[in-house]
Design a protein that fits this description.
single chain; 321 residues; mainly alpha; Lysozyme; globular
Length: 321
């Protein structure tokens, strides 16, 4: 699927393939990928404008509910995309494309001499994919501060998943593309989903392991109930009984990849009616409270812990880079 299809206004803004298309397009043609990324940034800006406008309108009424707010947020997302891709937006996309296009052009000119120099020195030349990745990172680092918090929406390449992440930034870089896709199907901002996985896995350092020490890719502590037919792993966890913590052994779901784990997590939130109030949450604190109220965890301080991660400086710094 080409980026032209992604940029057409009639494509659903929450289509989970759009993030993959953008990453693929950027790898093939950085200039074309930049145009699509710039449109996404303008879409995010317009989406925030629409949300701010709606926040000024009273939310009570017979037709007001968590479900109606969720579908309204999807409508705003689609409207924002239509405006930015049709050229009727505020012009941010064009300005970003013009400003950062110069950076890409400069890097394309420098890639060949750099590769030649490395070869002459006996080292391997810079691969074409590495050169594009360097351009990609340079573009991201050049983004204005106002867009920095959302810059990961264009998907950094996934980091090596054979070892535990050593920093919060590395953890975010590893799971962000999957959080973006899960966000598109749940209406929940990706940083909230990353925060939830960070709480359950200790920023990836305490994620559930299989018997051989390999990752179960279960970053959300999802247990394997009677209806689960997939892989499982037994692990010790802390449960609260009458407010008191106890160590117990539980059976958890296991996945072949983080992508599969995030997809199953998103499906759990969408398909289980107890999480209906969680779907579409746009405030980090409310998202945390609704998860606890739905019975996601037995820890009485769960919502407070999750809220502090989502709104805390560690998350902000990891996202900004």
């Amino acid at each position: 699927m080409s980026i032209q299809i992604q940029n057409q206004p009639n494509r659903a803004a929450f289509d989970v393939k759009s993030a993959q298309d953008l990453r693929s397009e950027f790898a093939k043609d950085p200039q074309s990928g930049l145009k699509a990324a710039a449109q996404q940034f303008e879409t995010l800006f317009l989406q925030q404008v629409l949300k701010s406008m709606r926040d000024t309108v009273p939310q009570d009424g017979l037709l007001n509910s968590d479900q109606s707010r969720f579908y309204t947020s999807l409508l705003d997302q689609q409207m924002a995309q239509n405006l930015s891709t049709s050229g009727k937006g505020v012009g941010f996309a064009k300005l970003i494309e013009q400003q950062l296009g110069k950076t890409i052009a400069a890097n394309q000119g420098e890639a060949t001499p750099s590769g030649a120099a490395n070869t002459a020195g006996g080292a391997l030349p810079l691969a074409a994919s590495d050169a594009r990745h360097l351009q990609y990172q340079t573009v991201l680092s050049s983004l204005p501060t106002s867009a920095a918090y959302q810059k990961l929406d264009v998907n950094q390449p996934v980091l090596n998943t054979t070892e535990a992440p050593t920093t919060a930034k590395e953890f975010v870089g590893r799971v962000w593309p999957h959080a973006v896709e899960a966000s598109r199907s749940t209406g929940i901002p990706p940083q909230f989903l990353v925060g939830h996985s960070a709480l359950e896995s200790g920023w990836g350092k305490s994620e559930i392991k299989r018997a051989d020490g390999s990752s179960s890719h279960n970053l959300f502590g999802i247990k394997a109930g009677k209806s689960w037919t997939g892989q499982t792993v037994d692990a010790t966890t802390t449960e609260y009984v009458d407010g008191q913590p106890k160590q117990v052994v539980e059976r958890f779901r296991a996945y072949s990849s983080y992508e599969e784990g995030f997809r199953d997590y998103a499906n759990l939130l969408r398909s289980n009616s107890r999480y209906s109030a969680v779907i579409g949450s746009q405030d980090g604190t409310e998202f945390a409270k609704r998860l606890q109220q739905a019975g996601y965890a037995t820890d009485p301080m769960y919502a407070d812990k999750l809220s502090r991660i989502i709104n805390g400086p560690t998350m902000r710094q990891a996202l900004i880079g």
